[in-house]
Write a structure and sequence with these properties.
23 helices, extended, alpha/beta, Signal recognition particle alu RNA binding heterodimer, srp9/1, 15 strands, about 625 residues
């Protein structure tokens, strides 16, 4: 006996369209056609109707709630024209009609009343069902997929021809991570070489690092080098408002991946579904997210590792590894964690070379010097820097990007957009000038401090009325106590200059004070640089080291005496640095006046001229 074909989605759409067209035609036949093709009855004012009744010209009338139809007399036959009028609430109308001998009755129901009643019951539910299907289809990702596709995976699939556009040559600055992932490519190309000797192919690789360092780009490069399909999806796309949708999408994603193995499944922002199921020892939270996480754990355990099986490798990226569930990080799921950190000097130069291939560079552009001036920049920051420089060159009608464009782009990224429309009065301008020169004088003497490249009193960003640009001459990974104290003294140099010159202080140093206090507190509570409190950590290290969100870690539970001792140590560090800044500016008071006068004339000092002036700063002798 032949098996009947299952109804396809196209057949369902065809039947739905037929029913919809039939309903529209029935509606037209029931309401619109009678209005168009039926007899047209002229209307008259209600006053004229009453007048004709009083004159005895009306033969009969049909009265309804919304209309009165009446027929005029025509000779002895009493067959005249028919008119209609809109009734007005009148209790005397029946008496008047009876007095004048008018035959009157209630209007009969319309001939299509049963159709109207039926459509009144049928059409509203149909409208509700249509609206419900519309929103279900939108939630499922397309009108053509239908409500049954809401549990389908939303992963974007890149086939071999598309992923081959991105290779390891497009990635720079993360050589250690690339070297680790080269082995993954070899797994995908020749899995038999590893399985034949009993080695187990890694099931998952977790890319960890700050935002913008190229984790997604690395995953695409792995797929491009291996020449395999690449499934890409964000962790937030698994979870919906409907319970069970997330786990259903996880199942569908891995079913598709197994059919196209060997392949790569890339889950970006894994922390959206992979957060720890316990918080401070208490279980609970978002049940839908937990179900999705449980399904992901089950699917990663269900991969076959037979020698003949084609491998499916899961790549995931996150910048918050500390919040992930421990079950995800155990061997057998995400076997490896690859750190994708911010690039060093040579890495930044290589990234700049890759991104600058798409723009026209002038002969004076020195990418090495630009890389030196951009410590801490991630790959995305450097790409944005090259684009900003190209935009500035085009705005200035230049045919190629010059070194000055890159210098201005760095200032835009570091300090913000220049705001020449923010005009200061003469008094404020002098205060800002002395403040910034104070920073520069102190900063030029401090050990381990960056080189002062520019002083400006032109406003940038949202709050900065002026700025002093200090750029390191090399990458630094460690700082000693003297260098940290020097940073604090530099931050307090602006306020110290205001105190000495104007014998008063302003609100301009609020940000400097906040940063100096945070740094001094870290020295005491995190770095153990207090002789009184000793080498103890008084802050809870619950954040990833590369997440610099500007918020200090909360202190551990401690006694009141310990808290008072920490506050005294922090105050002592700040006051010592403040005194150091005051002594430095007093020793170089004449140079402070000289540089400030030039800054007020030109609004900015940089380059060799600034370096020559700061070379005259005299250090304060320490007794």
């Amino acid at each position: 006996m032949p098996i009947k074909d299952k109804p396809t989605p196209s057949r369902f759409r065809f039947l739905n369209n037929i029913l919809l067209i039939g309903g529209v035609l029935l509606l037209i036949a029931s309401f619109i056609l009678p209005l168009v093709l039926g007899p047209q009855i002229p209307g008259v004012p209600y006053s004229l109707f009453i007048h004709q009744v009083q004159e005895g010209d009306v033969a009969r009338a049909q009265i309804s709630q919304n209309q009165i139809q009446f027929q005029l007399k025509a000779g002895d036959e009493e067959t005249g024209s028919v008119f209609s009028t809109t009734p007005i609430f009148d209790l005397n109308l029946p008496s008047l009609l009876e007095e004048k001998g008018v035959e009157f009755a209630a209007a009969p129901p319309p001939k299509n009343g049963w159709v109207t009643s039926l459509l009144g019951w049928v059409i509203p539910p149909l409208i509700f069902v249509g609206i419900w299907q519309f929103f279900i289809r939108r939630g499922a990702g397309g009108a053509g997929q239908g409500m049954l596709s809401i549990g389908k995976s939303k992963a974007k699939v890149y086939v071999e021809g598309e992923t081959a556009k991105t290779t390891f040559t497009d990635v720079a600055g993360v050589e250690e991570a690339k070297a680790e992932l080269v082995e993954i490519v070899d797994f995908l190309k020749t899995p038999g070489r590893y399985t034949q000797i009993g080695a187990r192919i890694p099931k998952g690789v977790l890319l960890v690092g700050p935002p913008g360092t190229g984790k997604t780009l690395l995953a695409k490069a792995v797929a491009g080098e291996a020449g395999v399909p690449f499934f890409s999806i964000s962790g937030s796309e698994f979870v919906e408002m409907f319970v069970g949708v997330g786990s259903s999408r996880v199942r569908d994603l891995f079913e598709q991946a197994k059919k196209q193995a060997p392949c790569i499944v890339f889950i970006d922002e894994l922390d959206a579904i992979g957060k720890s199921r316990s918080s401070n020892g208490f279980y609970g939270g978002n049940d839908e997210r937990e179900q999705t996480l449980n399904q992901l754990l089950a699917e990663m355990d269900g991969f076959s590792v037979e020698a003949e099986a084609a491998p499916v490798i899961v790549l995931a990226a996150t910048n918050r590894p500390e919040v992930l569930d421990p079950a995800l990080l155990r061997p057998g799921r995400f076997d490896r964690q690859v750190l994708v950190d911010r690039p060093a000097l040579s890495g930044r130069e290589a990234i700049l070379r890759i991104h600058s291939q798409k723009v026209k560079l002038g002969d004076d552009v020195d990418l090495r010097a630009i890389a030196t001036r951009t410590p801490g920049f991630a790959g995305a920051d450097l790409a944005n820097l090259v684009n900003e420089a190209a935009l500035l060159a085009a705005r200035n009608q230049r045919q190629a990007v010059a070194q000055t464009d890159f210098a201005e782009a760095i200032e835009r990224v570091v300090a913000g957009l220049e705001k020449k429309s923010r005009v200061l009065n003469e008094k404020e301008k002098k205060i800002v000038a002395y403040h910034e020169v104070g920073h520069a004088l102190v900063g030029s003497l401090m050990p381990g401090s960056g080189r002062v490249e520019k002083i400006s009193i032109v406003s940038r960003g949202m709050a900065a009325l002026g700025y002093t640009l200090q750029l390191p001459t090399e990458d630094r990974f460690l700082m000693d106590e003297a260098e940290l104290r020097g940073q604090i003294a530099t931050l307090l140099g602006g306020r110290s200059a205001e105190e000495i010159v104007f014998n008063s202080i302003t609100t301009g140093a609020s940000n400097d004070l906040q940063r100096a206090t945070d740094l001094a507190e870290q020295m005491v509570t995190t770095f153990g640089m207090s002789k009184i409190l000793g080498p103890l950590a008084y802050q809870q290290g619950n954040r990833a080291a590369f997440l610099e969100d500007g918020r200090p870690n909360p202190r551990r539970t401690m006694s009141e005496k310990t808290s008072e001792a920490i506050d005294r140590e922090v105050k002592d560090i700040i006051e010592t640095a403040h005194q150091q800044a005051l002594d430095t500016i007093m020793r170089n008071r004449d140079l402070l006046e000289t540089i400030t006068l030039q800054l007020l004339e030109t609004e900015a000092i940089e380059g060799e001229k600034l370096h020559h002036l700061l070379s005259q700063v005299q250090a304060v002798s320490v007794s």
